[in-house]
Model the fold of this input.
Amino acid sequence: MQSCNYDKTKLIHEMSEMVRFIDMHAKADSEESGHPLCGVVYDELRADLMKHLQKLNLAVAGLANEGKYV
Done:
């Protein structure tokens, strides 16, 4: 796999793990701790991550369709 393609795959994995952590832990922890502003930050971060994940996934799909995701 080319380095650039590997990098996209690695970023998709790492960013997906961050989204999962926010969903499974960070958001609830902010609520339990009475830190509503942290919850707002986590919501914004999650939205940003999802936006960039979508771009990376589209890039991978496009390269795969062209036979360049090797």
